[in-house]
Design brief:
Layout lengths: L5 H11 L14 H22 L5 H13 L4 H17 L4 H9 L10 H14 L5 H15 L11 H15 L8 H11 L11 H12 L2 H7 L40 H4 L3 H8 L5 H7 L11 H20 L3 H19 L6 H13 L8 H20 L11 H9 L15 H5 L1 H20 L15 H13 L8 H7 L5 H15 L6 E2 L8 E2 L7 H6 L2 H19 L11 H10 L3 H20 L3 H13 L6 H16 L7 H16 L3 H13 L12 H17 L8 H13 L6 H6 L2 H9 L9 H13 L7 H8 L7 H10 L8 H10 L5 H17 L6 H16 L6 H10 L7 H12 L2 H16 L10 H23 L1
Antiparallel strand pairs: 1-2
Helix pairs in contact: 1-2, 2-4, 3-5, 4-6, 5-6, 5-7, 6-8, 7-9, 13-15, 15-16, 15-17, 15-18, 16-18, 17-19, 18-21, 21-22, 26-28, 28-29, 28-30, 29-31, 30-31, 31-33, 32-33, 37-39, 38-40, 39-41, 39-42, 41-43, 42-44, 45-46
């Protein structure tokens, strides 16, 4: 050899007599001669290695020695070489791993080796594995496991001794007492190398028992690092987004992420299809489902796991529907499911064609035929979103993926006899003819478009199934007829077949608007409404909306927004065109996710325009719309709404609009309470840094500020972050404290996160109401003593001063002491006219503090005393209409009270609810509500009847009040 290692190997061969010399002739006659030869060879090799100093290429160095070992044919020479290699490793330990790998990777290293070489190799390997580091032993152990796979399940008798030697070597490394390798790494190599659970590759019983016993020793560790019963712990949809990492699944396999190679329970490593189906079959589950599989909402990668789960949900619905006899129950099941599926397919990562293809494959594998009403409902659901999804997909060449629906219809409708034509006066007709509608839409609208975008005449017209023949023929006649009136459900069935053609949509749209939105022949009397309005009071019935496809609903909402709202927005003479029926129709359309997603940003821009123009009628309408009709507002848009509508509260131009003020306060509270804990903890800091939310909280909105702080405290507790103070929170608390100084009771601070409670204790506030009783008594004397305030103008001027907020307290005192109010009531109404709506917050807080101090400082809390205060407060709200009861109660419950005094607020509230005046109002309202059907959406005269009856009863109450005064 030409390299520097060659002299060592040649010296070794010469010492062993393998170069043809007779130097060692006769030395192998006895044991002493063998030992002498071995020592001689070792000394020669050691001397050469010392002379060589360093070995640059260990692989080339050890290869000839391994070949020498494998070529040994007699026991003395094998003994000498074995001992030589051991001494070489002792002299230079870095050679241990190359020698071991060289032996294991040798082409002849298998169980067919002679026993002499095999046994000596096992003995040498047991010596070598004591020298390498963890990484080296890990590589050696991996190669040993690969040799294990070469063994058969039944070992021949002549190889038992070889297998035992090999078993001893493997057990030596796996024994944790020998500290040769970390057990965790051994477990990892076993998992990656050995194909467990495959019957075509069994193991010898001895190795199976050894490895299984080793794996079982890690079961306590697996239980320690895993969540016990996680497969049975289901997240709460809508509130578990922050903890979705506990249920994080692989996006393709739907298995829990188990990075550690540990023997977890079988339930922990199986696909969690049941858990995932549990999540997606609930409303508003999209964010949680995407979080479970670790996919962002705007990702473009298709998630087949969600598609398969939605397909399983739809198939389950088919069989479940066949068990439900009640039509309303079937409708509820499928409308909820349609809502869920549509929310998912609106994202590019979920394809309706993928869901249809999965359903097609699974249904085709069923042994029997699926009959019953369930298949019709499935076709109704697909028809709801088919045109909408196709129009969202602008790549016409991919439309051919949806033709799999034709195959699905053939499988679900194999009937040889044609199905009878349904009764179009019943909503059931929409469901019964849904399969034919889908077939007709695909063959007349989709296939021609595909043929044009690919190759002409490349697609043949499919033959109509026998079961749908009569239905398809009826649809052809329906399209030719072009209905111009809404007599039955044929109007909506025909409209769903039109597609996206503006010319074909226009007649249907005009007819619908004339009936439900623009019919000027109908007028609602002024006695029923606050002003004369024209047009129908009935919105589009929900049954009709359910009969429309998602595409048609979006078209109606878009048309109403552009032609009615935008054109008549600031034109007071044309505002009568916005009929109650039109507003109700638009509100009902917004309940559907496909419409809400399209119109939400437009409504946000509309709100900005309305507020900038100080058009408060529109602002009031939008406030009620956002409060009661929209439930899936994203965090960013919710923050913008807070900013927009809070600017109205801070604006002096709305001073004469107390109802608007109340509606906006309700909206702001509703928007704040809709923030879930994850939004507050993750998103709000970004909004605060951008100064968006800081403009929401003003000095007139102390209660809104306090509610938001309580929500932040709750988010820290629910997300488990109460022990980690964050700078943005303390800065935000400082900002709020500067605007509206406030405090909390000791019992409330105990439930807050520690850092928030300590911050409030370090920033106490002065009691601004310590002399409230004296001030009220002084103003009361001034009012009742004619010498103090000579005339009504002086009284009004005195109580209208911005610094004087005792007006409501004085009125309460007059009511409690049964003073005749006829001589004061007009004066007080003049005072309230001079007060700005936003300044009434200060009067409410003063009234709340006065009530609390009166009832908590009283020595005798008798029932008569509490009832008197409760009746007085109720009379101020009902008979005299000078306070809003819900607003006062909110302020009362948010005032800082010690724990011993808090029950008095609840006692007062109890007596208020049970007061005779309020009980009568609640009873009258209940009678009106009971006289109206609970299915208000199905009533054609709900607005007329409700407003007429309710206002009539309120007029009677006002008249009786005037007589009392």
């Amino acid at each position: 050899m030409a390299n520097i290692e060659e002299p060592v190997y040649l010296a070794c061969r010469r010492a062993l007599g393998l170069d043809g010399s007779s130097e060692i002739s006769g030395l192998l006659s006895n044991v002493q001669d063998i030992e002498a030869l071995t020592e001689h060879v070792i000394n020669v090799v050691r001397t050469k290695m010392r002379e060589q100093n360093a070995i640059r290429d260990t692989t080339s160095f050890v290869r000839p020695f391994v070949e020498l070992f494998m070529d040994s044919t007699n026991a003395p020479r094998m003994y000498t070489i074995n001992k030589l290699l051991k001494k070489m490793v002792e002299f230079q330990p870095s050679l241990a791993k190359p020698f071991a790998e060289g032996l294991l990777q040798h082409s002849r290293m298998n169980f067919a080796l002679p026993a002499l070489i095999w046994n000596s190799a096992m003995d040498l390997l047991q010596f070598l594995v004591r020298f390498p580091d963890y990484k080296g032993i890990r590589d050696i152990f991996k190669q040993l496991l690969e040799k294990v796979q070469m063994l058969m399940s039944h070992t021949p008798l002549q190889d038992i001794e070889k297998v035992f030697k090999f078993y001893t070597l493997v057990a030596l490394i796996m024994n944790p007492d020998n500290n040769l390798q970390l057990s965790y790494f051994i477990q990892n190599e076993i998992k990656q190398t050995l194909p467990w659970g495959k019957p075509e590759n069994p193991y010898p019983p001895c190795f199976s028992s050894l490895i299984l016993k080793f794996i079982d020793s890690f079961r306590p560790t697996a239980q320690l690092v895993s969540i016990t019963g996680r497969d049975m712990l289901y997240p709460i949809v809508g509130y578990s987004n922050y903890a979705s990492i506990l249920w994080r699944l692989h996006y393709a396999k739907l298995k829990f992420h188990q990075t550690a190679p540990l023997p977890f329970d079988r339930a922990q490593v199986q696909p969690q299809t049941e858990l995932f189906c549990y999540v997606i079959k609930q409303l508003n589950s999209r964010d949680l489902a995407f979080s479970l599989v670790g996919i962002a909402r705007n990702v473009k990668q298709r998630i087949t796991a969600i598609e398969e789960s939605l397909a399983d949900l739809l198939i389950w619905n088919i069989f479940e529907t066949n068990k439900i006899q009640d039509f309303e129950g079937q409708l509820h099941l499928w409308t909820v499911t349609a809502h869920i599926v549509l929310v998912y397919v609106q994202n590019v990562c979920i394809a309706l064609s993928g869901i249809l293809n999965t359903i097609n494959i699974k249904v085709a594998s069923f042994p029997g035929t699926i009959y019953g009403i369930g298949r019709d409902w499935l076709m109704w659901l697909i028809g709801q979103m088919l045109c909408h999804v196709l129009n969202k997909n602008h790549v016409k060449s991919t439309w051919s993926d949806y033709l799999v629906l034709l195959d699905l219809i053939r499988i679900l409708y194999p009937d040889s006899q044609a199905l009878p034509e349904p009764d179009y006066r019943d909503f059931q007709s929409v469901v019964s003819i849904a399969a034919a509608s889908n077939w007709y839409f695909l063959t007349t609208r989709v296939i021609p478009v595909i043929a044009v975008s690919t190759q002409p005449n490349s697609l043949s017209q499919p033959q109509t199934p026998n079961a749908l023949y009569l239905h398809v023929e009826a649809l052809k006649l329906l399209e030719d007829r072009k209905l111009s009136s809404i007599d039955d459900y044929r109007f909506f069935i025909g409209w769903n077949l039109v597609g996206n053609d503006p010319k074909l949509n226009s007649p249907y749209m005009d007819t619908l608007f004339k009936v439900y939105i623009l019919n000027t022949s109908q007028s609602i009397p002024a006695s029923h409404m606050s002003h004369n309005v024209f047009g129908p009071s009935e919105g589009i019935p929900y049954r009709s909306l359910d009969a429309m496809s998602a595409h048609v609903k979006c078209l109606i909402a878009r048309q109403y927004y552009s032609d009615i709202i935008l054109k008549n927005l600031f034109n007071q003479t044309q505002w009568s065109m916005v009929s109650p029926g039109g507003v109700e129709s638009f509100a009902r359309l917004l309940a559907f996710p496909e419409v809400e997603q399209d119109r939400l940003k437009e409504l946000l821009n509309l709100a900005d325009t309305i507020i900038s123009k100080n058009w408060f009628l529109g602002a009031h309408l939008l406030a009620e719309l956002f409060t009661f009709r929209l439930h899936r507002i994203p965090t960013s848009i919710r923050a913008q709404l807070l900013q927009q509508f809070s600017s109205i509260l801070a604006s002096p131009s709305h001073a004469g609009h107390p109802q608007l003020h109340c509606a906006i306060q309700n909206l702001l509270l509703n928007l704040i309470l809709q923030f879930n804990c994850t939004d507050l903890y993750n998103q709000v800091p970004k909004l605060i840094d951008s100064k968006m939310l800081q403009s929401v909280f003003t000095k007139e909105s102390e209660e809104i500020n306090k509610v938001f702080i309580l929500c932040i405290a709750r988010s820290f507790i629910v997300t488990g972050s109460e022990s980690m103070p964050v700078p943005w929170c303390t800065d935000f608390l400082t900002h709020i404290m500067q605007i509206t100084p406030h405090g909390w009771s000791a019992s409330t601070l105990e439930t807050m996160p520690t850092f928030m409670a300590e911050w409030y204790r370090a920033h106490p506030i002065n009691d601004m109401y310590r002399d409230i009783r004296a001030r009220v008594d002084d103003d009361y004397k001034k009012l009742t003593n004619s010498a103090s305030l000579a005339n009504e103008q002086e009284i009004v001027k005195h109580f209208s001063q911005p610094s004087n907020t005792t007006c409501l307290c004085v009125f309460l005192k007059l009511t409690i002491e049964d003073r005749p109010l006829r001589s004061y009531i007009n004066t007080f109404y003049e005072i309230f006219k001079n007060l700005l709506t936003r300044s009434m917050n200060g009067h409410y807080r003063t009234l709340a503090e006065y009530i609390l101090r009166e009832i908590t400082l009283q020595q005798n809390h008798s029932q008569t005393f509490m009832q008197k205060y409760a009746d007085a407060v109720v009379l101020m709200a009902t008979r005299y209409n000078i306070i809003q009861l819900d607003r006062l109660l909110l302020i009362l419950f948010l005032r800082p009270l010690e724990e011993s005094k808090t029950p008095y607020v609840h006692i007062l509230f109890y007596f208020m609810i049970n007061s005779n005046t309020l009980s009568e109002i609640i009873k009258d309202f209940g009678n009106i509500a009971r006289s109206i059907s609970s299915d208000i959406w199905s009533m054609k005269n709900f607005h007329e009847k409700f407003h007429c009856e309710y206002i009539k009863s309120m007029l009677i109450l006002v008249c009786s009040t005037n007589k009392i005064i």
